[in-house]
Specification:
Elements lengths: L1 H22 L7 E2 L3 E2 H20 L5 H24 L11 H32 L1
Antiparallel strand pairs: 1-2
Helix pairs in contact: 1-2, 2-3, 2-4, 3-4
Length: 130
């Protein structure tokens, strides 16, 4: 029961972040000490929480779990790598931002693919047990 509750809260948070980022709510522009925008924190947390949830759902000793661990490591590295690419904590790019776009899109694609893999595995397991 607790596992389903945590899973539900994770998805409420994910939905909240996605909707906030998609609609550009004002709270995303609040700047924390050190020039760290709250929207950037929300995006980073979204990546980490999503990767953590895929890791929790992946069976032990499987290829999917290994890929989920890699996804979590990449999600945790997203902000530090982004700061390195931008040269500042606000992720304000003054030059070519294409490497950052590729980095972010790669992470998103990785996590999305893990999600599809997880859902398809769950459907297959459900069908096999019926």
């Amino acid at each position: 029961m607790a596992r389903n509750s945590i899973h539900g809260l994770v998805w409420v948070y994910i939905l909240f972040c996605v909707l906030s980022l998609a609609t550009g709510l004002e709270w995303l522009e609040i700047v924390l000490p050190g020039g760290f925008p709250l929207g950037t924190l929300a995006m980073w947390a979204l990546f980490v929480v999503l990767a953590w949830d895929w890791l929790r759902l992946a069976p032990r000793m499987t290829r999917r779990r290994q890929m989920a661990w890699l996804g979590l490591i990449l999600a945790l590295a997203w902000y530090p790598v982004s700061v390195f690419q931008a040269g500042n904590p606000a992720l304000t790019f003054y030059g070519d931002s294409m490497p950052w776009v590729i980095w972010t899109a790669t992470l998103f694609t990785w996590l999305f693919s893990l999600g599809v893999w997880t859902v398809l595995s769950a459907l297959r397991n459900q069908r096999n047990s019926a």
